[in-house]
Amino acid sequence: MDSLDKSSLREPLLKYIQSGRPYFGICIGMQALFESSDESPGKQGLGVIPGVVGLFSKEDAEAEGGKKSVPHMGWAEIWKVWEKSQGEKDLVLDDQHFFFTHSYRVLYEQIPGSILQLAPSPSAPSFNVPAQVTKDLSPFVHTLSRYGSEAFVTSVKLGNVFGTQFHPEKSGAAGLDLLRRWLQSSPEELSGSVDPKKFVERETAKWKDVDPRTKPAAPTKRVVAALDVRSNDAGDLVVTKGDQYDVREKSSDETSGGVRNLGKPVELARRYYHEGADEICFLNITSFRSSALQDQPMLEVVKSAAESVFVPLTVGGGIKDTIDPDGTSRSALEVAGAYFRSGADKISIGSEAVIAVEEMLEREARGEKALSGKTGIETIANGYGASAVVVSIDPKRVYVDTSAEDWQSNFPAKHLPSLIIGDRATSATASKEKGKAWWYQCTIRGGRETRDIDVVQLAQGVERLGAGEILLNSVDRDGTGSGFDLDLINLVKRSVSIPIVASSGAGKVEHFSELFNGTGVEAGLAAGIFHRREVSLGEVKGHMEAVSIAVRMAA
Ligand code: 1PR
Question: Are β-strands 500-503 and 523-526 bridged in parallel, bridged antiparallel, or unpaired?
């Protein structure tokens, strides 16, 4: 709304909507139709639809462990609330999965505890949202979804106005189908008035009796394909893959050979999209070498990928304040903006996040204000929303000498929350860890440099700075195929309320069921097994479906 006001577009946009011509708003484009949002207190929305956009609740009796991750991120099922009226165009089909990424939502109905009741039936008026709000809102609501105990508005449609909370442009075949239907409708079908009186008086309009309790309480678990990208020795941009972050081939005498080349970034991204990846993640792993913003080879990769890959794209590596070779300063926000405009949906910050949290903790120790408002995480989250900011963590195990009786009392107190006692370990290698203990130390510059900060401090720190998701790697497991480090993942999952993409170590389909059944994470990521065609995305998803883990099967 600030942006619209600055460019004097509020009034023309309102006039356009009131003229009855077709409007289609996506995500914030739907939220802007409401009166206001708790995301920007005091700022007026367009006010076309009655209601306030509010924040999802993290505490939720209907969620696993009474807690749910915010942002709401992933593929969720939607359902239509009105029977189709005569001659009405079907824009959205029932029971399909669409991609969502947002922290704010328009609540339709919430019942604390275990009972969700359906509104707006007069016989069940006992929901927390004032009855008047849902009554005024109902004519506009087209589809709903459920997240824990919150039934929220996932699309609105009345007269000429259509809006989706989800991203059809990032929702694979289902999303493309929706866009096609809208674009192929005649102007008459999409035109009309947003006066609700005209709607409720239509004889054919009938509220469907859908019980939200019959719908999934959370998005499906996501399977993410990762592409580590860098220039090879001939200067070509290739997808590579390391063993514990070492991407060079080993020659027969154990000296380092050339950079492993596993394919072309855009071609591989397309392949994974067609095989059913829920997201693609590009990481520029040599980003510590600076280059001019406009010369970033990854910008071209993202642009080309976004032309034919219609699932969310995350881009990481080098998202930081930089100085171009000609001396021009570029803020992290500018660098991120260039990626978003090229088609990225989320950016991922690695090394800079570690530095930002270290500095935040130092400020706090000096009794100063923790947040500076100046870090890349803060400025990008402020400009594009927390859900667009991922922090990629590269932790390494540090084994502790446990030979002395009193080793625990000599262990640094600040790292105790990240200490794991091997006898209680749960990951696939636990049997080899008896009698050992270790903690997880964070690294920067692709594992090259260790810092005196542990993974719990970092995860909690970036959440405070405003990151919306964590990409949790493991230098020890990377490329080993020995399974995800469940101890590490559970440690971080318990420490934060933002979604986690667990990465490193996948070697077979069962590793994904171990991951999702053994931790509450929202997503699992793999690279090597997909690149080497050892396991396909379809096989991973087929396995998940077979063992009853909620998964999106791509059309
Ligand atoms: O520090 O903000 O410039 O970001 C650099 C980014 O590049 C970070 O996200 C960092 O994790 C990544 N990175 C840097 N060096 C390497 C390397 O491999 N030498 N790759 C690297 C990290 C981790 C995963 C990998 C999984 C799955 N890659 O994404 O794909 O471990 O692999 P697997 O399934 O084969 O086990 P900045």
Answer: parallel
